[in-house]
Every structure is written in C-alpha cells, then in structure tokens.
Specification:
The protein has about 280 residues and is α+β, with helices and mostly antiparallel strands. It has a domain at about 120-270: Rod shape-determining protein MreC, domain 1 (Thrombin, subunit H), CATH 2.40.10. It is about 35% helix and about 25% strand. It has three helices and twelve strands. It has helices at about 5-10, 10-30, 35-115, and strands at about 120-125, 135-140, 150-155, 160-165, 170-175, 180-185, 190-195, 205, 220, 235-240, 250-255, 265-270. The longest helix is centred in the first third of the chain and has 79 residues, at about 35-115. It is rod-shaped and about 155 Å long.
Length: about 280
C-alpha cells in the first residue's frame, strides 16, 4: 500500500492542496460579500471595544504626559519667579533701610551744625546683656578720638556719657541708670536738680526744694554745670510731681526724651560746645 502513487507523493500533494486553499482564501477575502470576510468581521467586531479602549487610554496617557511636563515646567517657572520676587523684596528693603539711615544721619548732622561744635556720629551695636546696668555699645572708640565722659546725645535728647572706651568701641552709661547723675533744671521755673535712674526703671529728679512749682509736662534741660553736657539740651519731661513722705524735696518722676530701646545712631560731642540760649531768658 505504501508503494502506491498517493503514498509516495503525499507530501507534495498535501503541500499543493494547502497552497491552493490559501490562494482561494486570499482571492475570496478581497470580495466584500465573500464568505471568508465573515470571520474577519466577527473578529473585528469582537476586538472593537478593546481597540477603542486602547485608543482612549493612549490618548489619555498622551494628554497626562503633556499635562505633567507642562506642570513641571510651570512649577520651575513659579520657583524662579519666587526667587526673583524675593530678591526684589530684599533689594527694596535694603534700599528703604539705607534711605531711613541716611535720613537719621542727616538729622544728626543738622544737630551737630546747630550745636556748632565738633561731634562724631556712631552706630549703636549692642547693649548691656546682663541687665545689671543700663548701657549701650557704640561702634567707634579711641581710634576715632573718643574719651571717657564725653557726652552722647540723639536728635530727641540727651542719651548718656562714655564710661569705657576701647580702640574700636565704647560703652555709654544711659541717663536712666541708677549710677548716673546729670545736673539739670526745669526750663520754666529754673529749679535745679540731679537727674538719675531708679533701679526698678524710670528716671527721677532729685534735690528739688518743696517750694518749687514744678508741673507735669515741664521740660527738663541740661544746666551745663556738670562739665560734661552743654547747657540747654533736652533731657526729658516731668511725668509726675508729689510731696508724699517726709523730707525737704519734691518727688519728681521724669520721662526721658530719648527712646533708648530704639536708638540706632547717636552723636558724641568730642568738644564741649558753647552755651546755648535757653527759651524764656534774655
């Protein structure tokens, strides 16, 4: 049986049959109404939802990708803009501070010209950290010609005197310190007394006779009798006057003219100026 023609040529016959079937399917598949199109149509119909989902997912992924990169770019631009705004704000603050400082220095120069004496402007760089005394530290010292007991003033009024001078800095004893003593007088009544600080804060005018008519709001000025401060500089204003307790003198509380906590620049009188005329005198 194996010696028959069909058995001997089975491979070639099978190959030829399959080839003819393939050619038939190809030729019939190009016709729209052919039977071979039905499996393709069914397969395409079955695959349509998956293809639509894939197309939508691809579109969303592309949109998300573009949105993500746009967001990253916008975030970088936002960070850069914030840096630029911060730099501009810093520069504006610096310019404003320079303008304020120039204005204060200009006021000190005008005060120096009004006093008609030699004086040196100095920056306040610190204060007493221990709280045991009321002092300020300035950024000029003996290299700039400063010496002990030089008067220190501001545009608002008397500040204090130098008690310690180093080459590049100096310590100022404020007039509201309990160790301070400043000869002063009431500008209205001409009553004299000694200005000094009290331990619990504030400032008082000592040794004013009870017969003197000091009133709240009176201006207290330097008398020029202590050899440190020139005459006529504003020290402060009377805050309260009382005659409580025994003794020969009034109890007088004085509010300093200068705000010591806000001082940033001061003027050191390096030479005693001529006496200033006092209002109300001839």
């Amino acid at each position: 049986m194996r010696s028959t023609f069909l058995w001997r040529n089975r491979i070639w016959l099978m190959t030829g049959g399959l080839l003819i079937l393939a050619l038939h399917m190809v030729s019939s598949g190009v016709r729209p109404d052919g039977r071979a199109t039905k499996p393709a149509l069914i397969l395409m119909q079955l695959l349509r939802p998956f293809q639509a989902f894939e197309a939508g997912l691809s579109s969303e992924l592309n949109g998300f990708s573009h949105a993500y990169f746009d967001l990253v770019g916008a975030r970088r631009e936002n960070i850069e803009l914030r840096k630029q705004l911060a730099a501009l704000a810093t520069e504006r603050s610096r310019m404003t501070e320079l303008e304020v400082e120039n204005r204060r220095l200009s006021d000190l120069l005008e005060l120096r010209e009004a006093l008609a004496t030699q004086a040196l402007a100095a920056n306040v760089i610190g204060n007493d950290a221990t709280g045991l005394s009321r002092t300020l530290i300035i950024g000029q010292g003996s290299r700039d010609g400063l010496r002990r007991d030089m008067a220190v003033i501001s545009t608002d009024g008397v500040v204090g005197r130098l008690i310690l001078v180093a080459p590049d800095s100096a310590r100022v004893l404020l007039i509201n310190d309990h160790n301070s003593a400043l000869d002063a007088l009431d500008q209205r009544t001409r009553a004299r007394g000694i200005i000094g600080g009290v331990i619990d804060g504030g400032m008082t005018m000592k040794y004013v006779d009870r017969s003197e008519d000091l009133r709240e709001g009176d201006e207290i000025i330097t008398s020029g009798m202590d050899g440190i401060f020139p005459r006529g500089l504003l020290v402060g204003r009377v805050k309260q006057v009382s005659q409580e307790g025994p003794g020969l003198f009034l109890n007088i509380d004085v509010k300093p003219a200068a705000n010591f906590r806000k001082l940033e620049q001061v003027l050191i009188l390096t030479q005693k100026p001529p006496e200033l005329p006092i209002a109300g005198t001839n």
